[in-house]
Amino acid sequence: MLFKNNLIKKIKSKNILKTKKKFWELKKDYKEKRIALLTSFEKNYKLSYSKKLVKVLRKKKNIILVGMGGSILGAKALYSFLKRKINKKFFFLDNLSEKNILELNLKKFIKPAYIFISKSGNTIETVTNMNLIIQNKKNNTKIFITEKTSNAITEIANKLKAEIIEHKNFIGGRYSVMSEAGMLPAELMNLNVKKFKNLNYLINNKNFVNRLISDASCLYDLSKQNILNSIVLNYDPDMSDLGYWYQQLIAESLGKKGKGFIPMVSIMPKDHHSLLQLYLDGPKNNFFTIFASRHQKKYRLSNYLIPKSIKYIAKKNLETILCAQRKAMEKALIKNRIPFRIFYFLKKREQELGTIFTFFVLETILLSRLMKLNPFDQPAVENIKQDTKKILLKS
Questions:
Q1: How far, in Å, CA of 291 to CA of 336, rounded?
Q2: pLDDT tens digits, residue range 156-207?
Q3: Which architecture, in CATH terms, is 46-194?
Q4: Which of 34, 40, 266, 289 could form a cystine bridge with 29, CB 3.0-4.6 A?
Q5: Is it true that 2-28+197-370 and 46-194 share their CATH fold?
Q6: 258: left (phi > 0), else alpha (psi -120 to 50), else beta?
Q7: Where are the domains of the chain?
Q8: What value does the mean pLDDT of the chain take?
Q9: CA atoms of 33 and 12, how far apart (whole Å)
Q10: Is the pLDDT score of 10 beyond 60?
Q11: How far apart are CA 160 and CA 154, in angstroms?
């Protein structure tokens, strides 16, 4: 994976020094096990499901995952990014939608396995979807991932005599991709879960750490300049779900006390024809994170039906055209002095995806320390949940 940082040409030296100090504090806290969730990013993290269960579930050709937010976004990102290595169908139900329920019912999967994920065990969208899709599917395999507490999902699982996998209470949903919520689906995709986990190596790797400190310093400086729109420009459809995972991570972790970034995912080059004018010539309150990768040079244009006026695309492959559009975008951002950074994937493997997950999680925690925020709670969301409950009780 290649990194490029064009966020700020001259970072204030005091910001770099402050960020370095915060990083060394973070590293010390990690080494002394004071950031418990980071243990799930280590190779020796003990997952709370058995190899026997994995062996049984791997026989299933179709897996249906039901959850909300971070409980499912990590698994979706895994599946999308590495789908060329996966010979199994996964269906993700992560919203309340009659259309999605109908689509699921129309697929008529033969004896699929259902995996329901909710850290709290009381997520009403997950319980609602669960109720709607398993009413007439009593003989199908059902697995529940939730905390070891008295909650709605535990009660349902016990009633169905289904297996319950513990969701560790010290790992929040948006940080759970390397825990049971992400790694059980990864195992069922026949991926190597150990290869995702390289925190011990990365946190001591000079290039990785320098990039982490540089990016965090830049983002912190941008926030102080009120440049708060964090837009992912995604030039690879396989990375859209990675973008949505990142979107939730920084929104819920840093959006507090009037601070934080407003993350958005823009699908490129499609959005060249809808949002590009705004990005380049609108308000200067955006910074961009570009996702791109080396594509297979599989599809190539012929000379057939290509007019002389656009002969420059004749015999070009799709990779070449996409690359030209991305480079033109980078050139325009530089010309207009708009801050951006690039994550370019030379290969799509567990190692690369694990590295970017680790990078963004550490960057988020580092930013939270610079901004004096708690990155592990979401008090405003909890208020909405309580009000939703009150409204439903009255209806």
A1: 20
A2: 999 999 999 999 999 999 999 999 999 999 999 999 999 999 999 999 999 9
A3: 3-Layer(aba) Sandwich (3.40)
A4: 34
A5: yes
A6: left
A7: 2-28+197-370, 46-194
A8: 92
A9: 32
A10: no
A11: 10
Residue 335, amino acid: K
Can you tell me which residue has the tokens 């290595």?
Answer: 85
Of the candidates 340, 367, 362, the one whose C-alpha atom is nearest the C-alpha of residue 4 is 340
Q: How far apart are CA 290 and CA 235, in angstroms?
A: 7
Amino acid occupying residue 23: F
Give me 344's structure tokens: 């370019």
Q: What is the pLDDT of residues 356-393, one digit of tens each?
A: 999 999 999 999 999 999 999 998 888 888 899 899 99
Length of the chain in terms of residues written: 395
- At residue 129, φ and ψ (nearest 5 deg) are -60, -40
CB within 8 Å of 111: residues ≥ 6 apart:
60, 139, 140, 141
Is the whole-model pTM more than 0.90? yes
